[in-house]
């Protein structure tokens, strides 16, 4: 795996379908995989047109970490939105506001999306064992844009919030 690119991003709001699960729960029968299946087969959490920032980009957000609870976090699959009323009233959608942060951006190799993201997350875990950067756990996300449009040859960028403070 190549060294990540370090970038700064401003505050963002990500909204969509959500579940609470262990951060490390990945694989074909995981809560994340089931949430992706629900996302692909549902239109319940599609942002109102005026609220969607970039409708062609999908985010898989990991936020609201509880490090003492086996790494549990809230996982949201959806879009970047501009406001807190981005979805139709009554929709079971969640909006999470990510604070402005520095991010280490890791890019997967081309391949099946579930496989290459799981592989890259494992490499990310190893990277932080020796890196000068530390994870902030303020919100991390996978970005699925045009490079990920072919599910069998997807290239996904994974953004990890970081700090260089001890």
TrEMBL record:
<feature type="domain" description="AraC effector-binding">
    <location>
        <begin position="2"/>
        <end position="163"/>
    </location>
</feature>
<dbReference type="InterPro" id="IPR029441">
    <property type="entry name" value="Cass2"/>
</dbReference>
<dbReference type="InterPro" id="IPR053182">
    <property type="entry name" value="YobU-like_regulator"/>
</dbReference>
<dbReference type="InterPro" id="IPR011256">
    <property type="entry name" value="Reg_factor_effector_dom_sf"/>
</dbReference>
<protein>
    <recommendedName>
        <fullName>AraC effector-binding domain-containing protein</fullName>
    </recommendedName>
</protein>
<dbReference type="InterPro" id="IPR010499">
    <property type="entry name" value="AraC_E-bd"/>
</dbReference>
<dbReference type="Pfam" id="PF14526">
    <property type="entry name" value="Cass2"/>
</dbReference>
């Amino acid at each position: 795996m190549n060294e990540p690119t370090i970038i700064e991003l401003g505050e963002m709001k990500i909204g969509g379908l959500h579940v609470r699960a262990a951060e490390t729960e990945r694989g074909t029968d995981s809560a994340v995989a089931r949430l992706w299946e629900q996302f692909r087969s549902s239109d319940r959490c599609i942002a109102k047109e005026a609220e969607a920032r970039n409708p062609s980009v999908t985010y898989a957000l990991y936020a609201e970490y509880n490090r003492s609870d086996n790494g549990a976090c809230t996982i949201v699959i959806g879009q970047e939105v501009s406001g807190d009323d981005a979805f139709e009233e009554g929709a079971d959608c969640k909006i999470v506001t990510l604070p402005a942060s520095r991010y280490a951006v890791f890019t997967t190799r081309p391949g099946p999306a579930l496989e290459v993201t799981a592989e890259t997350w494992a490499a990310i875990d190893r990277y932080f064992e020796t890196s000068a950067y530390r994870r902030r756990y303020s919100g991390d996300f996978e970005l699925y844009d045009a490079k990920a449009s072919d599910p069998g040859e997807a290239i996904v960028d994974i953004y990890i919030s970081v700090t260089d403070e001890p």
